[in-house]
Amino acid sequence: MTQRRFHLVLNVNSGTVQALGVTEPDLEAMFKEYGLEVEIDADPDLSLDQRIEKALASDADTVIAAGGDGTVTALATAVIDSDKSLAILPLGTANLLARDLGLPLDLKECVAALAAMEPLSIDVSEVNGTIFLHKAVIGVLPELAAGRERIRGEGWGAKIGYMRYFFRRLSRARRLALEISTGDGQTRIERVQSIAVACNAYDEGLGRFFHRDKLDTGLLTIYVLRHLNAGDIFRLAAGMIAGRWRDDEAIDISTARSVSIRSKKPRLQAMIDGEVQSVEVPLNFKIYPRALTVLAPIKAVKEELAEDQAENRSEDLPQAARLPA
């Protein structure tokens, strides 16, 4: 097999990168130790857009996002329409896609595993032209998340102050009136505290917070929170820890291939893959099946191939043979 050529984009401003003290020479040494060919871009003076242009112009077949989920999404957006694959070195706080793919979260272990990884095709989603890999959330949650970002790295006093703000803001939050239309022609009016549109579905399971086993179903999952108070938060958190939250009375869950959300407001605050931004209404969501090629551990790739083969065998059977006994 031809050896892969990697172009690595390091987010030197990532809190995790700075906390771990990850440097360009450290990464060069790791890749050399495992016999991997890499060009590393750790230039803090260039904008991310400029660095992405360099990555796309390189002769590498795989671009590595070395940073958090925001870095991963930005690079994924760029490589979707290219002939390059995406790889991830999880150097963020949440590392959501890396966890979904089953990547080692230890930096050195992940570098060591790169050589044996194989391409995996996964879905990507879009809202009003912005690509996302996980979810987009509107309502009270983006505002609370923005407040959390403002105190990142601050001391305990700021954290305690944020908790006071969190529960005070939650108690005063007004529900949004939204019109939700799906591609199958269904339309409904909801009054919500928050609504999330996810690329595929989050699974239940003991201690599995926001984890997706399936990344290629071709479906958006819509999570509607009609009410969200302190009691709801504690109950939902306990349910997530126990692995039983999808049937909680505060949540309504549905799926669709496309979704449009309208409001009387001209713009809404949205948290898209962890980044809070103002988005023009209506919010139009789409999903692109298996549009992104990422490197994943061989186990994940084999599981996808096995599922594809099982589906193909099922399609080849006569209709009667596919009916349950």
Which helices and strands occur, and which strands form pairs?
Blueprint lengths: L4 E6 L4 H6 L3 H10 L3 E5 L6 H10 L4 E6 L1 H11 L5 E6 L5 H6 L5 H8 L3 E10 L2 E3 L2 E5 H11 L5 H17 L3 E7 L4 E6 L1 E6 L20 E6 L4 H13 L8 E6 L1 E5 L4 E6 L2 E6 L2 E14 L1 H19 L9
Parallel strand pairs: 1-2, 1-3, 3-4
Antiparallel strand pairs: 5-6, 5-16, 7-10, 7-14, 8-9, 8-13, 10-11, 11-12, 13-16, 14-15
Helix pairs in contact: 7-8
Provide keyphrases for this structure.
single chain, 325 residues, Rossmann fold, Tumour Suppressor Smad4, 2 domains, 10 helices
- Label the overall shape: globular
> Share of helix among residues?
25-40%
As for the CATH topology of the largest domain, it is Tumour Suppressor Smad4
* Helix segment tally: 10
Number of strands: 16
Q: In order across it, which strands form the biggest sheet? A: 6-5-16-13-8-9
Give the distance, in angstroms, between the N- and C-terminal Cα atoms: 45 Å
Overall number of domains: 2
GO molecular function: kinase activity
Protein name: Diacylglycerol kinase family enzyme
Biased composition (Basic and acidic residues): 306-316
Keywords: Kinase, Transferase
Question: What does the model show?
Answer:
There is one protein chain. With 325 residues, the chain is an alpha+beta fold. It folds into 2 domains: 112 residues, Probable inorganic polyphosphate/atp-NAD kinase, domain 1 (Rossmann fold), CATH 3.40.50; 158 residues, Sandwich (Tumour Suppressor Smad4), CATH 2.60.200.40. The protein is 34% helix and 32% strand. The chain is built from 10 helices and 16 strands. A 6-stranded antiparallel sheet has the order 6-5-16-13-8-9. A hairpin with a 2-residue loop joins strand 14 and strand 15. The termini are far apart.
